[in-house]
Amino acid sequence: MYNRRLIFALALSFSIIAMPYIITYNAQADLDELILVPGKYTGSNVYAPGETLTIVLRGDPNEVYSIYILGIIVGEWRSVNLGEDGETTAAFPIDEVTPDRNYTVQVRDYTNLIVANATFWVQGYVALIETDREAYLDGDTMNIFWTTNNLKDQSLANIGAAFIRIRNETNGLHHDIPINTSAGKISFTLPVLITNYEENYTVEGWFNDSFIPPRRTQYAKAQFHMKRLSVLVHLDKQQYTVGSLLTIEVKTVVTDNQSFPSVTDTSEPGCDVSISIFRLLNNLRLPTPIELISGLATDTHGQVSQIISLDDPLNYTDGSEYEIEVNAQKGGRSWKETTTFRIAESSSLSVVLDFDKELYASGDSILVNASVFSIGGGTEFTYLFEVRDTRANGTLFSRQTQTSGLFTFGIPDDFVEGWLWIKATVDDGEGNTASIEQQVKVVYAIILVNVEKETYVASEELDVSYEVISTKMSAPDIYYYVEDNEGNRVDEGVATAGIFTFTVPATPSSSYVFTVIASEGGRIVQGSDTAVLFSSYVLTLEFDKDIYSPGDPMMITYNVFVFGDANLPSTFIINYGLANVPLISLQTSQASGELAYIIPDNIDEGEQLFTAYCDFGGVVNEVIVIKSGANPLWYLKIGDIPIFTMLLFLLLIICMFWIYRTGRRITELQKTGITTAEKTRKLPLETAVQTVDCVECGSPIEITTSRRPIEVMCPHCGEIQHLDR
């Protein structure tokens, strides 16, 4: 009895002591979320070696869980507590030597019960393999490209063992090519006479870092197809006149349907092409071609073109029909395609649409004029206009046939915004037609926004004007906002009176977009304009001489001026030299300095263009004079004025001064006559006259000069006598 009581007491005591733990266990909640933060190199649960795997656990506060990294860590990796906010983060570093494979993050509660699993993959390489085309003809050479890169930085991977396999589904084609490089190209000639066109053909590549056992391994594949040869033929027109030019375009392709190839089929290059033209008589082809052109070959795009002049009046006549046969051949495969054309009096029409506006508002009227040009005559045309919603098969709004090319369409009031598809078809009644299609933009309203300046500086005020053009909006509410170059809003508000002002911050963005919004009746329209920060560079040159001879050295002083918010790079390159001559490059960090240049010996004489530009902006062009044996004084300048011009100007001043002085002296003489002093100065000359007696008749002879010796003649008897003194 005593033992029973003792056992009961012990059991009751144990129950009381264990009750809190039993309650805690019953309250244990499941983990809400196990999140693996995507890898930074892939954005998925694929991680590169050396990357850190971030694990996020979310659940009830203060719960404790154990994290296991299966495949990498044996046993428990870490025990975590969710804390007061019920969330914790754990960072697991993936070692560089962790092999490529998938691994599991497992979370267990304190009872060792698994509450969550998440799988991730470690991958060191990224492999890509590709063929140069999607489809081939048997016997073609297929180029295979491959590259294997490190996932972490896209550098080329270290490949130790790799091979490429070319095969089909039934292994009828099975060819292995060993490779030992991370990237490259190989060429493979496909077998001839492949007839199984329904199978899938594959190029596969295995890329490992070593032979056995590989730590890094990647697989890549690309599919290609084997198809049949076919030909596409296109004529620029279906009807021509005698003497006009026919342009034929040929494209060779590989396709599943030889009789009906498509322009989307894979091009087949290197095909031999011949073109024959036959005349049709009663829909039967005459046996002898009137034109035969051979020796053509399609290019890389499988294309070849030929122009044929229809200028032979014996072979090309009005009303006749002709057939063009194009034969293409490559290897053992060939195909031919035919098309027809006709010779008529009038052969060509073209039409152009001219709209009265580039943009329309809802409710506007569209005025469009269709202008027609015809080769070979024909002045009477029929016009068919169609207006549809958005596209050729959209809702039909209008169809009108008329003899005038002027067409008007009123945009419905309920066509708020979108595109209108307008088509005009012209027929000349002689079997020639031409069509043109064009889309026009329709908006509920048009908002014109104009910033007063295209450029700005810091702290400047900009006035932004706007105008709302609409037949629907009578008094809309106007709002505006301003966004910087990063798309952040820096200002917004309500606008009135057609203008608002924006003050550029002291630290401005490189550009601002000004958007104006008009709202009324449940409709919102907007318009915008852009201004950019003023920044510019100006490069100037100053030459040491005004004229140079071939072979002369040049010393040029340069200056780089910075305007606005532009910043001069720490180092930059100036390229300079004469035009049509290789330029010289100078790398410098100075905004001003000297450039050395030697004029080539074989340069042409005369005016030559000298150019210079900086790699960040700033261009200058100057004209210099090159002349052999030129007198440098002729081109010498002082203050940009030629010294020869200055000398001529100085001589002109001297001449004008001399003329002025002489004229003034003559004027004074005319007014006052000869002065007494001047008469007195002449008396000695008058008293200096001498006389001598003639030796024959004794008459006096006057002598008025003092020059000796001299001969004089007597005025009375004519006797000549000689005087020594």
Give structural notes.
- By secondary structure, the chain is mainly beta.
- Strand 21 and strand 22 form a beta hairpin.
- 10% of the residues lie in helices and 52% in strands.
- It is built from four helices and 56 strands.
- It has seven domains: 31-122, Macroglobulin (MG2) domain (Immunoglobulin-like), CATH 2.60.40; 133-226, Immunoglobulin-like, CATH 2.60.40; 228-343, Macroglobulin (MG2) domain (Immunoglobulin-like, Sandwich); 348-443, Macroglobulin (MG2) domain (Immunoglobulin-like), CATH 2.60.40; 446-533, Immunoglobulin-like; 535-636, Sandwich (Immunoglobulin-like), CATH 2.60.40.1930; 692-723, no CATH class.
- The strands form 15 sheets. Strands 18, 21, 22, 23, 25 and 26 form a six-stranded mixed β-sheet that branches.
Q: Summarize this, please?
A:
With 725 residues, the protein is mainly beta.
Topology, pairings included?
Elements: H1 2-26, E1 33-36, E2 46-47, E3 52-58, E4 64-70, E5 78-81, E6 87-93, E7 101-108, E8 114-122, E9 125-131, E10 135-136, E11 141-150, E12 161-168, E13 174-179, E14 183-189, E15 201-208, E16 217-226, E17 228-235, E18 239-240, E19 245-255, E20 266-267, E21 272-281, E22 284-285, E23 291-297, E24 303-309, E25 321-330, E26 333-343, E27 348-355, E28 359-361, E29 365-375, E30 382-389, E31 396-402, E32 406-410, E33 418-427, E34 433-443, E35 446-451, E36 455-456, E37 461-469, E38 477-484, E39 489-494, E40 499-503, E41 511-520, E42 523-533, E43 535-543, E44 547-548, E45 553-564, E46 572-578, E47 584-588, E48 592-598, E49 606-614, E50 619-626, H2 632-635, E51 637-638, E52 641-642, H3 643-672, H4 676-687, E53 690-693, E54 700-703, E55 710-713, E56 720-723
Parallel strand pairs: 2-8, 10-16, 18-26, 28-34, 36-42, 44-50
Antiparallel strand pairs: 1-3, 3-6, 4-5, 4-7, 7-8, 9-11, 11-14, 12-13, 12-15, 15-16, 17-19, 19-20, 19-24, 21-22, 21-23, 21-25, 25-26, 27-29, 29-32, 30-31, 30-33, 33-34, 35-37, 37-40, 38-39, 38-41, 41-42, 43-45, 45-48, 46-47, 46-49, 49-50, 51-52, 53-54, 55-56
